[in-house]
Predict the structure.
Amino acid sequence: MRENGLKFEVNLSDYVDTGLFLDHRDTRARVRDAVKGKRFLNLFAYTGAFSVYAAADGAASTVSVDLSPQYCDWTKRNLKLNALRGEVICADCSAGSSPIGGPSISSCSTRRRSRRTSAASSSIPASKGGAS
């Protein structure tokens, strides 16, 4: 599906959730105005829609964290659909854990750092915003 010029994978048959909450459309659009040149951290990232918006609109970098390997993979696919790059980390980001290198990194119960989604690994050009 397309939303504000960006592409997102949705699933209308296999899950109760579709992969994109339509009632968050306005909030995702507001991210566009706030991220230029900034580092963007998306905790409980779900399918990475906010990260896609941030990467597409000039964030210096994006990091998406979610506990579910299924949603981490979905985030990577959404980034690739838009020829964008961003780091995806499959980890528990609840209180007391730090999946991005903080002092309690060893307490992450499901720490599986995914391979960075990048143009080099997927033959897709880097984003216009230079996200990494």
User: Anything to note?
Assistant: The domain at 21-114 is CATH 3.40.50.150 (Rossmann fold). Residues 103-132 have pLDDT under 50 and may be disordered.
